[in-house]
């Protein structure tokens, strides 16, 4: 049974985030919605979508100029604006998913607990999904092709996709593909740009996602 007794697949600790090179501090709180809770209580997928209604500020954008690290909300906003809004066939898995301890469901029922946070919240027509991956204080990106059930992993530092990130990515792909198994492959090193500094991973995966989905890679 999908996700039965799923182990904790969240990554990062508060201590690690003091030197975070990738995104928002990752707490390890369990995210659950109980039947007794108010149906109007916001779940993570709703929070991620609502955050997109707030325009990015100069503070967010100046982080790139000042060689600082951008957070997951900024990554969501940029990829949504440059990739998802331009193509209804594209879906974005919110970068906030790496703060989420338990993922069990994805569907059109609003009260499903522990939902996978995506932008838009649910889609039956998407062809490809962009999946930012926060791995050891570094942002990577993967692109899932729903038809072929193949997910290609891109790391601008050429790191391998190890555990627990591999298992969490497999689960995300499985949920997006209606429970079907998906293959995860690593993109050839010579097929995309490489990062030579220690802070530009966020902007680079945003640019990379744009180029991949516009057939420029």
Automatic annotation (TrEMBL):
InterPro entries in the record: Papain-like_cys_pep_sf
Superkingdom, taxonomy of origin: Eukaryota
Name of the protein this chain belongs to: Ubiquitin-like protease family profile domain-containing protein
């Amino acid at each position: 049974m999908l996700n039965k007794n799923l182990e904790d697949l969240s990554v990062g600790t508060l201590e690690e985030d003091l030197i975070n090179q990738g995104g928002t501090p990752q707490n390890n709180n369990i995210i659950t919605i109980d039947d007794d809770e108010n149906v109007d209580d916001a779940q993570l997928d709703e929070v991620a979508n609502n955050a997109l209604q707030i325009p990015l500020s100069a503070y967010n954008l100046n982080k790139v100029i000042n060689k600082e690290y951008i957070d997951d909300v900024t990554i969501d906003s940029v990829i949504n604006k440059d990739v998802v809004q331009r193509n209804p066939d594209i879906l974005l898995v919110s970068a906030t998913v790496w703060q989420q301890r338990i993922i069990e469901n994805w569907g059109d029922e609003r009260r499903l607990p522990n939902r996978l946070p995506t932008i838009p919240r649910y889609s039956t027509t998407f062809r490809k999904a962009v999946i930012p991956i926060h791995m050891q204080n570094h942002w990577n990106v993967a692109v899932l092709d729903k038809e072929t059930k193949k997910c290609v992993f891109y790391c601008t530092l050429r790191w391998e996709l190890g555990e627990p990130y591999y298992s969490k990515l497999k689960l995300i792909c499985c949920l997006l593909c209606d429970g079907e198994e998906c293959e995860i492959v690593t993109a050839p090193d010579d097929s995309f740009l490489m990062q030579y500094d220690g802070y530009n991973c966020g902007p680079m995966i945003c640019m990379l996602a744009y180029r991949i989905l516009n057939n420029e890679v």
